[in-house]
Specification:
Elements (H helix, E strand, L loop, with lengths): L22 H4 L7 E4 L5 E4 L3 E3 L10 E5 L5 E5 L2 E5 L1 E5 L8 E7 L6 E6 L8 E5 L7 E5 L4 E4 L8 E7 L3 E6 L2 E7 L7 E6 L7 E9 L2
Antiparallel strand pairs: 1-2, 3-17, 4-7, 5-6, 6-17, 7-16, 8-13, 8-17, 9-10, 9-16, 10-11, 11-12, 13-14, 14-15
């Protein structure tokens, strides 16, 4: 016949472990080859050409702020920069082959722009995301006069924007989806610029920005 046996197994509780999953956690470490990004709520990535989380209460020395008028402001607070009737740009500029990516919120205001620009005076050439002359729509624009309306509602909520600059094109992405491609051939070096030129109390804010290659 058969004999039934009861076997008692004792399983030890799993050991406690450490968990790092936020910017503040990752920032406790140091490594010259990596950068703590606010992307996805906090992550460690290879060190980009430019990596800016807009922490503290003022812009870093790598950026310059210029008001469009005496009332213009560029303020850093709560891990973001907000421009109102002002613009900011990196002091350094970059050749074709670079990619700018940022997490930003466009407001319901005309003439808000962010992307690649020759200089903070907004001289051409440029390749930008822009509200253009509207308060409720977003465009991909290049300085040759090409303006592509991007279908969807992008105003008032944060999204991840990216512009790839090649030797002959500007390629626009939102939240990982390609939304426009413009012919864009120039040998000029360019820099990331964030701008709002309206005086209406509705600014453009950016949480973080990177320029690659890594």
């Amino acid at each position: 016949g058969f004999v039934d046996y009861t076997v008692q197994v004792t399983v030890a509780e799993p050991p406690s472990c450490f968990l790092d999953d936020s910017v503040s956690d990752f920032a406790l470490g140091t490594n010259n080859s990596t950068f703590v990004s606010e992307g996805n709520g906090g992550q460690v990535i290879l060190a980009p050409t430019v990596g800016e989380n807009f922490v503290g209460s003022s812009l870093s020395a790598d950026w310059t702020a210029v008001p469009w008028s005496s009332s213009g402001t560029a303020s850093v607070s709560g891990g973001a920069v907000a421009v109102e009737n002002a613009r900011i740009g990196t002091n350094a500029d970059y050749a074709a082959g670079a990619v700018v990516e940022f997490r930003g919120t466009f407001g319901a205001s005309q003439w808000q722009h962010a992307g690649w620009v020759k200089d903070t005076d907004f001289n051409a050439p440029w390749a930008i995301f822009s509200t253009f002359n509207t308060t409720d729509q977003l465009y991909a624009r290049t300085s040759d006069g090409t303006n592509t309306l991007i279908a969807g509602n992008w105003i008032g909520t944060p999204h991840t924007y990216r512009i790839d600059r090649t030797a002959s094109q500007a390629i626009f992405w939102i939240d990982g989806t390609q939304v426009a491609v413009h012919n864009f051939t120039t040998s000029d070096r360019m820099r990331p610029v964030i701008s709002d030129s309206s005086v209406d109390g509705v600014g453009l804010s950016v949480d973080w920005l990177t320029v690659t290659p890594y």
